Amino acid sequence: MSLKLCQGNKCHTYKTKDRLKGMQGSKTFQTRRRSDFYYGNDNFCSLNCQNDWFNKFGDQAINHFGRTTQAKHLTEQNAWVKDYDYNYRDQTNPKSNYRFVNTITKEQRPLTESQYDDSTYTLNESE
Ligand SMILES: [Zn+2]
Asked: Which of 2, 83, 102, 118 gets the highest tally of CB atoms within 10 A of its CB?
């Protein structure tokens, strides 16, 4: 099990017992180290740490990846979402009837399980 560090830039400044680490007599408050984090796509130990990071680096990140400068529009061309019926009776295939649903036109199109699981597979022409 590999441990990773919380990416919060102020994580070590929160004086909690679990952050106090080191040899007796020379303990310091340290960045949290865990196998899994529940916040920020598994990068932050708490919402506080995620907010600290965003307050410091959020503007830079948005500018780096492209700031939204025009309102986006939901149209028939980008309104496809993946959906399925959960079948409690058939536990060998509980997610049956995979499909695309267009949230504007309500049109449905069939989808295979692997297409459903493929996060890059979409019918949308833009985001
Ligand atoms: Zn943290």
From this structure: 102
